[in-house]
Every structure is written in structure tokens, then in C-alpha cells.
Amino acid sequence: MKKTIFSLIFTVFAAAVLHAQHWPGWRGPRGTGVSSETTFPVSWDASNIRWKTPIPGRGHSSPIVWGDRIFLTTSIEGDVVPGREKKPKHMLGSQVFIHPDMVSHDRRQTMKVIGLDAKSGRILWERTAYDGPMADGRHRKSSFASSTPVTDGKTVFVFFGTEGLYAYDFDGALKWKQDLGEIRTLGLGYATSPVLFGTVVIVQCDEDNGEKSFIAAFDEATGKQVWRQTRKVQSSWATPVLVDAGGRTELVAGGAEFTIAYNPATGKELWRTKGVESNAIPSPVYGNGIVYMTAGYPTKAVLAVGRNVSSGNEPKILWAHARGTAYVPSPILVGDSLYLTTDRGLLTNLDAKTGEMRYEGGRVPVPATFTASLVGFGDKILQASEDGDVFVIQAGPEHKVIATNKLGEPIFASPALSNGVIYIRGERHLYAIRK
């Protein structure tokens, strides 16, 4: 009897370990925003907050989680730097462009990487990656720390655009840093996050009008450049996604002009097709053999890119949609439904295979604005607003808000889901929320 009970307990424990997931980078294990775990709280209050840790500075990057460690980045703004009063000029096509909402180009910034204990929320270490004036400005609503780190379980890779790509071990020791040169993004800041494939870390570096845009891979152990591919694509802020394409892995990178797939091991271009023809800010998602690209400004676009079997499996636009998308938040794929969100949180549910609309304009209970991307688990979708509300949406053919949870401070970063805990970066604190 005791042996049977022990076997049952071990089986349950093993199943729990099997289903617990790290959240190692932007939008989780597959870059899609979906966790395979299902034990996260749906409704919560103060009693569900496991811990709450103050985070200095300003950052829109998401926390990443590996086992009992959490990592995130922040930017601490300092004094005005003499001689930097004029806003940097940019080229948009053949025209000089200065974004009216560009700020902080004239101030000193301290760019930090922070390691925390996942059980207690205690800050274990802080490291300054860069300290000084920035090469460019940022949007007044954004942050210089908007790119989410990525980890392989041993090393944390952090991208600060022109200010560099860095690798730290789990104890905060700097392993290497890489200068990628000047990467200008129209004075709006960086948001593209690094991606890991095998033994390389990949960064997409699209700048201004595309004359100097590139995508490159660096050896994770040494920081040495492994490959680099030029791209004639204007500034973008989306993070590329790794796609299982029938026996090979493709790195699919969005852009206004093109959607391009690369061999992530060599950088060789595999195929290209039409881009979103707008600011490429939301990240692509993948499933059902289809990559979904979206954009929300200046025009709205959804492109479903799949294989044309009758033409030798060449990629093609399977279907397109022209409304319901956001300027910043990325969509999510749950089952056979693609969920789009607007910046005001209006949800659209499209059949992921055909593009057929299941519903449109699903509203949250109160007026709100959203910067965080959609994340989900099981049949639940989380929408985190700038007002600090986290709405839980029931996935399905009809729009249904099943819970509204108040955090108490603005949310701009996308939540992370790991080991039954929802990690939410508010404007001033990092929260751990569990049942």
C-alpha cells in the first residue's frame, strides 16, 4: 500500500515537473506568448501576491525566468549632457525626419541588468552594462530598456541596440560584449529582442530607411560574429520567430517591405514575400504551418504566410485581413484561433487557417490603453493594460471576460508565465502572482 501511494505521489510530482516551463525569452519558450502550463491563477487579490520587488529606473522589457532565477533590464535616467541639446536627425526615405515625440537624447543613461531570486523576489545582483549619453533618443512613452533578454540556462544575453549586446553568467559576471555599431530607429528607441538558436544568439537590427539594416548571429560562448546578412528594410521593432518548417528550422523576420526567412545557422536567405507595409512592431506568431505577421500603423494589416503545396512548397500569402490590429501589442494563437488586439484592447478572433472572422470588437469592461502583448495558458488569454488592470479572456468563438484583476500600477511590459507563477513588471515593481 505504501509503495503504491509513493508511486502515485512520484507520478504526480514528475508530471508537475514535466509541465513546468521556463520562460527564457521574449514571449516564452517558442516566442508565441503561450505557456503549456495550466495552473496559473485566473482571479487574484493581494493574498495571491507571492512577493513584490521595487525595480529602479524605467523599462518595458519583460522578465525572463529560468528555474529559480529571474532576469530583466532597466534604464536609469541621469542629468542633461552638455552639448547634446539638438535632437538627432534621421532619414525617412530621402527626407530628413525628426520625430516630435523623441525625448532623452540629451540625458545620461545607466543601462542595468538585474538578477533576482524567483522564490523570494530578492535582488541578487545588479550590473551596469552601459553608462553615458545615448546615440539616439526614445519615444516619450517608451524606454531604452525595451528589448527582453534571453537565456539558455547558463548565460543571459541582453541587447541595448547601439549601446551593445552583452552576455552575463547567472552570477552576474560579464562574459563578453559586442559593439554592433550605430543602429538608429527614427528616434523611437529599440524593442527587438535577441533570439537563441543552437550555439548562436541572433539580433535583428533594422535602422531608419534601411540603408544600414542587418541581421546577425554571434557565438554564445565568445561573442564572435558567426554570420551577418544585410537587409533593405526600414526601421522595425518586431522580434523574429523560429519556425519548424517541415524538417528544417527557419528564422522568419518581419518588416515593412518584406517578410524574409533565413537559415538561423548560416544566415542564408531562404525565401521572402510581401511585408506588412507599415511599422513592423508587433512580433510574428507561428502555428498550423503558418506564420502570422501584423501591423497597426499607419495602416492595419494581417498576413498569413504559408506553403503553397502545388508550387513546390513555396511560401505565399494564404489570406490577409485589414483591421483589428495594434500599433504595439503582438497577437496570440490559441488552438485554431488567431486573436488580434487593438491598442484599446478590442479583440478579434479569426480562424487561423482561413482568416474567417469569428468575432470582432470584443471589449474589456472599462476604457483602457494597452502596450503589453497578449499572453495565454490553456484556454485563457491575459490582457494587461496601462492602467494596471489584467483582464482574463476566455478563448473561444464568443468574447467573454471572466476576470478583472487590479495590480495597482501601470503595466507596459508583457507578463511572463513560469512554474505556476505570473510575473508582471509594473511601472515601479516586479510582481509574482500565484494561486
Structure description:
The protein is mainly beta and 435 residues long. 4% of the residues lie in helices and 44% in strands. A 5-stranded mixed beta sheet has the order 1-31-32-33-34, with no helix packed on it. It has a 4-stranded antiparallel beta sheet with strand order 2-37-36-35, with no helix packed on it.
Round the Cα radius of gyration to an integer and report it.
21 Å
Tally the helices: 1
Q: Can you tell me the overall shape?
A: globular
Biggest sheet overview: 5 strands, mixed
Chain-averaged pLDDT: 93
* Order of strands in the sheet with most strands: 1-31-32-33-34
> What gap, in angstroms, lies between the N and C termini?
31 Å
Strand runs, count: 37
Question: What oligomeric state do the depicted chains represent?
Answer: single chain
- The residue ranges in which pLDDT falls below 50 over 5 or more consecutive positions are 1-19
SS strand fraction: 35-45%
Secondary-structure class: mainly beta
Q: Helical content, roughly?
A: under 10%
